[in-house]
Write a structure and sequence with these properties.
The complex is a heterodimer of chains A (337) and B (332). With 337 residues, chain A is of the alpha/beta class. Helices cover 33% and strands 25% of the residues of chain A. In chain A, the strands form two sheets. A nine-stranded mixed beta sheet of chain A has the order 6-7-8-3-9-10-12-11-13, sandwiched between helices. In chain A, a hairpin with a 2-residue loop joins strand 4 and strand 5. In chain A, helix 5 crosses helix 6 and helix 8 packs parallel to helix 9. An eight-stranded mixed beta sheet of chain B has the order 6-7-8-3-9-10-12-11, sandwiched between helices. Chain B is built from eleven helices and twelve strands. In chain B, a hairpin with a 2-residue loop joins strand 9 and strand 10. With 332 residues, chain B is an alpha/beta fold. The chains are: A alpha/beta (337), B alpha/beta (332).
């Protein structure tokens, strides 16, 4: 197995101050409100958060698939290998989607179209983005299927999804995701969880794809277990903002934001039996009536006056770990005023 | 509760399930030929002691929810029986009083708090409904009781006038718990009570359930697929695969010393709680077979990494390699 430093290369995706707002009858919902992160080649970044935290809208914004209206990307930059894809026309964006940004859905049962055979579905992106046809297309499809270890790909590609097992279907979805050798792969996890053994297969597949192609993966999840298993770095989102970001081990060992800390403490562990779980009081705030100060203040164990007055600056707590919490102000120099 | 039956000591089992089966007929063919049966639950035995939490774990399709439905009397068992406080299901079924007693003593909290509360009813009426149906309480008494229940589960009395859509997921699950508590039941069936909730809310609900158990001596049957939740909440756990319990042990024993290859595979697939935890990944080949046509011999043998000769032909019998730890596997 490669160490992370060998595996991880240059920045492929640089998201700067991304803002996606929705106009609703309750007012403007700032679903994503000033999100910054970078993804390197071969790296896996986990974006963790609860429903309404903005993690899925972040993913949709990167794909430029935010339903509009009511959603609008109102600001920021999404630099994909140096190019700001928010500046692209819709037609140009179509060329990016599926070729330079791929997507792998977790549920293999719904991700494939039942009325097209595997060859059609794996070949679709290659046909559109790489203009392959005829025999070259077929060879490429067979090659893709071989890469994801589908046995007898020449025969299997004529099958329809229902003729494949769940595990193979998942591999086909993986093959589609990496067929055009994307720089970024987005893995969005549905809220209803799959069975553990199916999920384990899916995670293993993603690892294989990454080792094969060096693709940078963004994992959208609510589960710190997935982060622990898969990710190199984590960005924790709460109410539309990243509250903490850093190396996965650092975040688990020394969470610098009370929300991260509380979230990790409130999840039961399979390895030991806990006497009593910490439970975070209250619930996530409504995005259309966010408080003036820190959005987590009313659920936080460490709230003080300053938390109620202003949203915290982002503080650098060392080794690339950043935290949007006033508690860190004294320890560090402000990274961003 | 006025209709108390024989009082059980704490070591007595509150619910004992024996040889429980549920076969659904799925195809009949012409004139009933080629009848096909889906064996959702195929011979399940377990006991739940009073005041304890018993967990049933397994993947989708293993029959854990069907088992729960039979215990709730929402499904009639094809075969087998269960005893509640020493009365078997048949006796209970024949007597109206016992049936009523059983139904008020066995309540449920469901997985999806968006689907399990009637959107047209006010929360107060939702919680009051079991009281109106099953007791002779007056309207004022019921209203008082509803208020008390709301406070008990961490909500406010005044919220009785609101509709379910005015609550968050966690609050709705609290309403579901209040409804289950209304008739002072002895056993509550918890069918994936936290898996539809946000991570930061799950611990609230789990802790609420634990507190209520301590306060009222409740007994729980927890249906879950998340092993960490099971470890946190359960005293004893049964692992189901294709309609049968393949292993059962007290929680700590099961997690420290899993015996069945399926249990081990499930545990190896569970997500770690820290990035430094690396488990040996046991890779299961193939899919969960269809319960319409389960494999011969041991149901698990086509996927089992430790299968050997007898597994294909012979159905394994239950053994107790460790006291109080049963496993159905040819290895033991």
């Amino acid at each position: 197995m490669m160490t992370s430093s060998e595996r991880i290369g240059d920045v492929v995706l640089d998201v700067q101050d991304l803002r996606t707002y929705f106009v609703t009858r309750w007012g403007v919902v700032k679903a994503v409100d000033g999100v910054d992160f970078q993804l390197r080649k071969g790296e896996t970044l986990g974006i963790v958060g609860e429903s309404g935290s903005g993690k899925s809208v972040t993913a949709l914004s990167i794909m430029r698939l935010v339903p509009s209206p009511p959603g609008h990307i109102v600001g920021g930059k999404v630099l994909l290998e140096g190019q700001d894809i928010l500046e692209l026309s819709d037609g140009e964006m179509e060329n990016v989607r599926g070729s330079r940004i791929g997507m792998v859905l977790q549920d293999p049962m719904t991700a494939l179209n039942p009325v097209f055979d595997i060859e059609d579905q794996v070949g679709e992106a290659l046909r559109i983005h790489k203009d392959l046809t005829g025999e070259t297309l077929e060879t490429e499809v067979i090659d893709m299927l071989r890469k994801v270890r589908i046995p007898a790909p020449e025969i299997r590609m004529k099958d329809y999804p229902h003729q494949l097992s769940g595990g193979m279907r998942q591999r086909v979805v993986g093959a589609i995701g990496i067929s055009c050798d994307p720089a970024v792969l987005i893995a969005d996890e549905p809220t209803t969880s799959l069975d553990a053994t199916i999920q384990a297969q899916y995670l293993r597949l993603l690892r294989e794809l990454q080792e094969l192609t060096g693709v940078g993966i963004i994992f959208i999840t609510h589960d710190f277990g997935i982060v622990a298993k898969m990710c190199d770095r984590v960005a924790v989102m709460y109410a539309g903002k990243i509250v903490e970001q850093g190396d996965v081990r650092q975040i688990f060992n020394n969470p610098s934001h009370p929300y991260t800390e509380a979230l990790i403490q409130s999840v039961p562990k399979m390895e030991v039996r806990e006497e009593r779980l910490y439970s975070i009081p209250g619930q996530p705030p409504a995005l259309w009536e966010l408080p003036q100060g820190c959005s987590f203040a009313d659920r936080c164990r460490h709230t003080h006056d300053k938390c109620l007055e202003a949203y915290p600056d982002v503080f650098d707590v060392g080794d690339g770990q950043v935290s949007a919490c006033w508690l860190r102000e004294k320890e560090t120099v402000s990274a961003k005023s | 509760m006025t209709t108390e039956n024989a009082t059980n000591g704490s070591s007595e089992s509150l619910l004992a399930v024996r040889g429980l089966k549920k076969h659904f007929q799925v195809g009949s063919g012409l004139f009933g030929r080629n009848k096909l049966f889906l064996k959702a639950v195929d011979g399940v035995d377990f006991e739940i002691k009073e005041g304890e939490t018993y967990g049933l774990v397994g993947e989708s399709g293993c029959g854990k929810t069907t088992t729960a439905k039979m215990i709730l009397r929402l499904e009639e068992p094809t075969e087998g029986t269960f005893e509640f406080e020493g009365n078997d299901a048949e006796t209970v079924g024949k007597s109206k009083d016992l049936t009523r007693n059983y139904k008020s003593n066995v309540q449920a909290v469901f997985q999806d708090p968006w689907a399990s509360l009637n959107p047209r009813m006010r929360v107060g009426s939702i919680i009051a409904e079991p009281l109106e149906v099953s007791t002779v309480m007056t309207k004022t008494d019921i209203a008082d009781k509803v208020g008390d229940l709301l406070v008990e589960v961490g909500l406010q009395k005044a919220q009785a006038n609101l509709f379910p859509h005015e609550f968050s997921g966690g609050q709705r699950q609290r309403i579901g718990v209040a409804r289950a508590l209304a008739l002072n039941p002895k056993l509550i069936v918890l069918d994936e009570p936290v898996s539809a909730l946000d991570v930061s809310i799950r611990a609230q609900i789990m802790n609420l359930l634990e507190d209520l158990q301590d306060e009222y001596g409740l007994t729980y049957l927890l249906i879950a697929h998340h092993l960490a939740t099971v470890r946190y909440m359960c005293d004893k756990v049964g692992v189901m695969y294709l309609g049968r319990i393949v292993e059962e042990a007290p929680t700590e024993e099961l997690f420290d010393n899993p015996l069945h290859p399926y249990t081990r595979a499930l545990m190896s697939a569970a997500l770690p709680s820290h990035p430094d935890i690396e488990r040996e990944e046991i890779i299961l080949t193939g899919e969960v077979p269809s319960p319409l046509d389960p494999p011969r011999g041991c149901h698990f043998h086509p996927r089992c990494p430790s299968r050997f000769e007898p597994c294909e032909g012979t159905v394994p019998v239950e053994t107790h390699p460790v006291p109080d730890h049963r496993v159905v596997c040819h290895l033991y």
